[in-house]
Amino acid sequence: MLKKILSISGKSGLYRLISYGKNLIVVENVTDKKRIPAYSKDKIISLGDIAIYTESTEVPLSDVLTTIFEKFEGKALDAKAYGKPAELHTFFSDILPEYDKERVYDNDIKKVISWYNTLINAGITDFKTEEVAKEEPTAE
To answer: Where are the alpha helices (DSSP H) in the chain?
Structure first.
């Protein structure tokens, strides 16, 4: 599901991919359902392509969002409760204990919290990225 959810630089909120056009894509805001064009000059990134740095590897954003969803029983987070940097890092240490504290900044954690709340409020709770299913050969 996260492959079709986009973040567009310069525009607030998250967007769902609707269709492709020449030099643009049509996207829909996940909260107010307004459709707008996003052009090839815009910096557009799929949430399915984002990963969080850890000490040994990178963890997909979908896994982090799933962990938050399970830990908080599918409820939205109170972003104001994590206003100070120490509170942000304590929260993220509970979610992803081995995250790289030097490469994951306060703003990154705030963005994860914001994205999580936006997705939950829009009714999107399936954070898994779509895997291309490989067909297994049939035995004849």
So the answer is: 61-71, 85-95, 106-121
Report the distance separating Cα 45 and Cα 116, nearest Å. Answer: 16
Closest alpha carbon to 91 in 109, 117, 118, 69:
109
Cα–Cα distance, 68 to 94 (Å, whole number):
9
Is the pLDDT score of 128 beyond 80?
no
Domain definitions of the chain by residue range: 2-47, 49-121
Q: What is the pLDDT of residues 16-58, one digit of tens each?
A: 999 998 889 999 999 999 999 999 889 999 999 999 999 999 9
Mean predicted confidence (pLDDT) in 97-126: 94
Phi, psi of 12 (to 5 degrees): -80, 155
* pTM (2 d.p.): 0.86
For domain 49-121, the CATH architecture is Orthogonal Bundle (1.10)
Handedness of CA 87, 69, 50, 115 (dihedral sign): negative
Task: Report the share of the chain in percent with pLDDT over 90.
Answer: 76
Q: Which fold has domain 2-47?
A: SH3 type barrels. (2.30.30)
